[in-house]
Amino acid sequence: MAAALLLSAVAVPAAQAETGFASVELTPTSGWLVQSNGTWNIRGGYAGGFAIDVTNQSAGDVDDLHLRISFPTDKLEVTGYEGDHWTCWDVAGGPGVEGVHCQADFLAVPQEAFPTLTLGTKGHQHHTDTLDVYAESGGHDEVHAGVAYKVDIST
């Protein structure tokens, strides 16, 4: 069962989570099981995916959206990224930096959603961590969304 999660840097009701220039929503699309505590679980070696939806909450147009998707690349592999108007690239550099960066070639007017970005994943080692997404746009403070996850390789 895929459940949508609206996440922010702190635990606040969803109505209060949209205080930055954008709202960011992470939704598992395949392979991930959402636990009752909100943690995403996936079996090691199996493919999974999740979608990132960003909506412009500012009073003006946003045409320079950049996403930093941070996770330990040695333990969780991104097998692909897909989305209209998105360009993505892998980034190395250690904890907090490594992962995937994506740029949207799209202009979103106030209250308009950017095209959905979908990432394919595969867990390689038993571990618990977080998927962190940072949305950035010139002149605005970054917006953070994150979800705890676990890759389980037990039988």
Written overview of the protein:
With about 160 residues, the chain is mostly beta strands. The protein has a single domain (about 5-150), classed as Immunoglobulin-like (Sandwich), CATH 2.60.40.1530. About 0% of the residues lie in helices and about 50% in strands. The chain is built from no helices and twelve strands. It has strands spanning about 5, 20-30, 35, 40-45, 45-55, 65-70, 75-80, 85-90, 100-105, 115-125, 125-135, 145-150. The strands form two sheets. It has a seven-stranded mixed β-sheet with strand order 3-4-12-11-6-9-8, with no helix packed on it. It has a five-stranded antiparallel β-sheet with strand order 1-2-5-10-7, with no helix packed on it. A hairpin with a 7-residue loop joins strand 8 (about 85-90) and strand 9 (about 100-105). It is elongated and about 50 Å long. The model is unreliable at about 1-20 (pLDDT under 50).
Order of helices and strands: EEEEEEEEEEEE
Whole-number average pLDDT? 86
Count of DSSP-assigned helices: 0
Structure summary, number of beta strands: 12
Keywords: Signal
Signal peptide: 1-17
